[in-house]
Amino acid sequence: MNFVLSLCARLVFVVTLLRGQDVLWVTDARIAKGNNINLGEALQFLREYDSEASSMCLRVTTAQWSYATNMTDFNKRRMIDEQTLKAKFDKVSWRKAVEFDWSRIPDPLARRLLRMLVTNSRASLGDDKFNEIYHLISEMKDLYAHVRACPYNNFDKLYCDLELDLDVKRIMAKSRSNAELTHIWQEWHNKVGPPMKNKFMRYVDLANQASILNGFQNAGEEMRFAYEDENFESEIAQAFHKIQPLYKELFTYVRRQLFKRYGPRVLRSNGPIPAHLLGDIWGQDWSNIEDIVIPYREYKKIDVTDEMLRQGFTPLRMFQMAEEFYTSLGLKPMPPEFWRYSMLERPNGRKVQCTVSAWDFCNKIDFRIKQCTEVNMNDLITVHHEMAHIQYYLYYADQPYLYRDGANPGFHEGIANAISLSVNNPTHLYRVGLYNNNTDIYETNINFLMSMALKKVAYAPFAYLVDQWRYQIFEYGVKTMNADWWELRLRFQGIVPPVKRTESHLDAAAKRHVIADMPYIRYFVALLLEFQVHDVMCDAAGHRGPLHTCDIYRSREAGRILMDILKSGKSRHWKDIIRVLTKGNTDTISPEPMLDYFEPLLLWLEGKNKREEEKIIGWSTKKEDTALFQPLVSKGYSVGCSLVFVINSVLLLVLNM
Ligand SMILES: *[C@@H]1O[C@H](CO)[C@@H](O)[C@H](O)[C@H]1NC(C)=O
Ligand SMILES: *[C@@H]1O[C@H](CO)[C@@H](O)[C@H](O)[C@H]1NC(C)=O
Ligand SMILES: *[C@@H]1O[C@H](CO)[C@@H](O)[C@H](O)[C@H]1NC(C)=O
Ligand SMILES: [Zn+2]
């Protein structure tokens, strides 16, 4: 079998090589380009694009805002009309941009802008396919929004009306019954994936076609191209492997607590963790099982909600407090339009989307936040986080349209979370008069770091693997895509499905980003960047002591560093920004500050894990684990291989003609 496989692989390889020589436009010419190298015409086009794209963005954003804050049928129709207009505009812009030979335009700014325009679009597809992929994605989003699960004790199956946001998430967070958790996990995954599977496969096919026409080998390569760095993949892989030891210590400790709670009939004491026990439908954020894993139960979790209520906080006052945080760093106050038009509370008398978001209306004036703010500690942190996005918008407002964005796709979220690291720690809450207890108790600090680790460290392998999977299926195909998904989750997260999965399922579709065509690796980048930026700002603020106790409040020096990142937007290469940020120490996204932040917890975990008897840090995998998702071993491989071989040969024939 092995021999046959490798022989077959070699043949395919040879055929591919031969083909490569014939079709120079695929492998050599790479990114799509035309013949026009007239600089004057290029600049003229870019000027027009800049002003038209800005006004198009204003129209679409205005329509989206109207619908999100007033969900009527009329507003929905208007929003869809505007979005369709925008898609048409993007297509026309791509066609104009691709007439230029960006690589030979004698102006670096124009060159980069043109390249951004031609590599971030599906417009290379003809009209039919362009419309098809556009509709496929909205159909999948629609299906996702309408999935309803049946409750656990619902014998007559009459009331299958559990929604993701309201019910599924709540049950996964609160229930401690293995049977109920298994049921809900299975319900959600069985209902979301299978109906989308065919659509998703067609989407993969079309996305690849578009990318190939743009000059890439597949859609995954085009997704990574957004980072404008050929070492990007290997750099983040290295960072990921540096974080894994910390993840495995956390994992081992958490598994032990789960084993104590659920026993050997639910999980092995040295094996992977079944995905339904982690308090979250995706197993990406383990905060909800804090009650099971808290290190020092007798030391309460810090929560200033009662104090906020006692002091008579309102949503408005929370936003004013966040504004004061930024002005204390020397940053800008919120403009009058922000206060006039934002939706800071859930309004009465109309239906609204309560998901928190920060908006840039692309006219350099109008910036808003939409949040159904409640007076509690969690929302206080969120308010600071969202306002960081607004600060970013304010500072890069004068850049060209295409540069009004984070330096790379991870920056917006990374910066906003770096701010949250200062705001949510006891030192800061003490300084703003919300917390008067001693912040220097060892047990309280370990509890605090544990709650941060359940959010951040637990998230690292998940944030990393979602796009590893996508790159894989874009490159190697969809034949075993569900098994591939679980293979990655087992290898990187140590997580297995609670029940048997097959290729009729599509469990990755449980994550909306996957079917909504939204890249995910940015969240892994943001996670590392968060600690890296926090570290640099704390240094500038003259902070001494453990990184998790640092608060940059009132530091003009930290503010200057922040401002420098914000005002560049996307105009400078992100590697430049990191080089300046770290005073030349590095130009990569480094995992060290994150490890530094969690160092005290790592020591604590190592101490705990050493003393226990399972003697394994991480997980050992058995056949019974992989049997949960692997297709029955069959002739699948050789069939697949000869199929590829046949296709390759046919192509070779066609191309040689
Ligand atoms: C909500 O939208 C409708 C149009 O569908 C409009 O007539 C109404 O005035 C809007 N309400 C508010 C409060 O903006
Ligand atoms: C069914 O389960 C829900 C929790 O999922 C519980 O609130 C409800 O009381 C249960 N109903 C019955 C009839 O057991
Ligand atoms: C401060 O400590 C007291 C006593 O230990 C406790 O009751 C109180 O909840 C703490 N306050 C906060 C905000 O954690
Ligand atoms: Zn955010």
From TrEMBL:
CDD domains: M2_ACE. Its cofactor is Zn(2+). One of its GO terms (cellular component) is plasma membrane. The active site is at 386 (proton acceptor 2), 386 (proton acceptor 1), 513 (proton donor 2), 513 (proton donor 1). PANTHER family: ANGIOTENSIN-CONVERTING ENZYME. The chain crosses the membrane at residues 636-655. This is Angiotensin-converting enzyme. It comes from Brassicogethes aeneus. The lineage of its organism: Eukaryota, Metazoa, Ecdysozoa, Arthropoda, Hexapoda.
